[in-house]
Specification:
7 strands; 49% helix; single chain; 3-stranded parallel β-sheet; 227 residues; Rossmann fold; alpha/beta; 2 domains
Length: 227
């Protein structure tokens, strides 16, 4: 079994889900007492958040240093446990020389959507992820049309992520708000483009496909680790 490297702490709540999901998938496939081989590098997220997703050069410097350090830890692949930081990955990867592959969470979502013949999605995530366009740009090669909620709904989703989910608060009223946003936008499928949102946005309760990027990201790594 290959060893999976996780760059986590971004935020720590969803990093726990990465560890849980990967181990669950490995045990489901191998049985007995099998668990995944994982090396977790958990960073202080404030070192990135203090730049408020504006100074991407500084964010890139921090991310590059952390990835290089993790790459040296006898691993075989890397997952960045965060959607928004994949914008920075796209900016630094041409100058990033690592021994091991980094699996891009957006490409995992795009590949799955393509397999399922999904050509239109509603993107849910942080306000920055929904508005910046880096997600949409990456999905173009999969011929996927991306819709986003209106401004008021984007602000509400951001509030739920920042004030509730990142602090382990799971409220039924917020689940209902997200469901109403999805129904209002009349989409063919939803990409859950935030690693905290799966805490309240799950397939159960929706009639359309819910693409959990955290789960798809983990599956990519487990497929690699077990083959």
């Amino acid at each position: 079994m290959k060893t999976i490297g996780l760059l986590g702490g971004t935020a720590w709540v969803s990093t726990i889900d990465y560890y849980r999901q990967i181990n669950k998938m490995v045990n489901e496939r191998l049985g007995k007492n099998h668990s995944a081989k994982i090396i977790l590098k958990s960073i202080d997220y404030e070192e990135i958040k203090k730049y408020n997703y504006q100074d991407w050069e500084k964010i890139g410097d921090v991310l590059m240093d952390e990835l290089i350090d993790l790459d040296s830890c006898n691993i075989d692949c890397i997952l960045i446990c965060n959607n928004t930081l994949h914008k920075s990955l796209g900016q630094i990867e041409s100058n990033l020389y690592l021994e091991n592959p980094i699996f891009n969470i957006i490409e995992c979502a795009g590949e799955y959507a393509k397999e399922q013949k999904i050509d239109e999605v509603l993107l849910l995530g942080t306000k920055f992820t929904m508005e910046d366009g880096f997600y949409q740009d990456k999905l173009k090669k999969y011929d996927i049309k991306v819709k986003i909620p209106d401004d008021d709904d984007r602000n509400e989703i951001q509030r739920i992520i920042q004030e509730e989910l990142s602090k382990e608060k799971i409220l039924d009223i917020s689940k209902e708000k997200i469901k109403n946003i999805v129904e209002k936008n009349k989409c063919k499928a939803v990409i859950v483009g935030c690693t905290e949102l799966p805490m309240i946005v799950r397939q159960d309760g929706f009639d359309i496909p819910i693409l959990n990027t955290l789960e798809l990201h983990c599956k990519k790594a487990v497929d690699f680790a077990l083959n």
